[in-house]
What we know:
Radius of gyration: 22 Å
Distance between the termini: 45 Å
Structural class: alpha/beta
Number of strands: 12
Strand order of the largest sheet: 2-8-7-6-5-3-4
Largest sheet: 7 strands, mixed
Amino acid sequence: xxxxxxxxxxxxxxxxxxxxxxxxxxxxxxxxxxxxxxxxxxxxxxxxxxxxxxxxxxxxxxxxxxxxxxxxxxxxxxxxxxxxxxxxxxxxxxxxxxxxxxxxxxxxxxxxxxxxxxxxxxxxxxxxxxxxxxxxxxxxxxxxxxxxxxxxxxxxxxxxxxxxxxxxxxxxxxxxxxxxxxxxxxxxxxxxxxxxxxxxxxxxxxxxxxxxxxxxxxxxxxxxxxxxxxxxxxxxxxxxxxxxxxxxxxxxxxxxxxxxxxxxxxxxxxxxxxxxxxxxxxxxxxxxxxxxxxxxxxxxxxxxxxxxxxxxxxxxxxxxxxxxxxxxxxxxxxxxxxxxxxxxxxxxxxxxxxxxxxxxxxxxxxxxxxxxxxxxxxxxxxxxxxxxxxxxx
Length: 393
């Protein structure tokens, strides 16, 4: 769309032209099944092997520790269920946080129905996991800690290295949902004490429908999809060769440009934050001011309702979000915003704007200018705002 300003990159990103071009031959030229033995299929097999090398190198992992999946939600499900079922003889206690993505939270709810016990750790007002509470919650029967790398709504980056250290000191496996962080911030699984990691291609200019799970060598985990012998017998199903190639190509591009892209996005992000906080009163930035993803902003505007804000922004050609794309149809306030201490009425007035390196300062200026008028219009329609102004005169 010609005049659209797209600021919802945490929901999904545009597949880059380079990624698209890299994928094309595996749709119509090298379309053989990567699991077949004849020479024609060898091109697909080699493409999958090469992709595994690229992803492993990016994470500081071994190629045999990388498993291709159908996306972030599948990887999260596999990590939690796979460890839970493999370790059930040792224990049935899992620790996670109150601000995880629903791919984690709903999987935990499922495991609870099977007799597993889940502890949900609190976070502070910036969304950072409370490490003392985390360590105090570990028990003899704790088998897994799953804490996201960076929050998908408020952008806060967690102290992953410290969480991994605590887990390992107690002999507990550590999984991180890195769907928002992968290819946006540097990740080395050894340096950060990560045992299992989830990522998804469409969050960093790769294709939809493909993801990875990093699984540290030596950790036993049960298979998630049964059938064929693909992915070393742990994840059955014909390889999505074009998607896997696209994931690797997007990873390659991200590795080359990560520092430059992150610097540009941070500059744009901070400009957006400063303008909104300075020019729109009764507004709060959600998430940590510095320890956040380079492209993430999340605001709460008092006295307005977030859905109306999104509709009116859309009418002006601006795409934003009130939080996770997976819960955009829900009328309930964000569980993340409630967990950081926001009351319901303020949590309802939230807006997430997430950038890419293709956004410009001019787009940010237009967005803020439109946003100022929309917020003012909505507040003028609010009896709560009218009462607030009268009381504070």
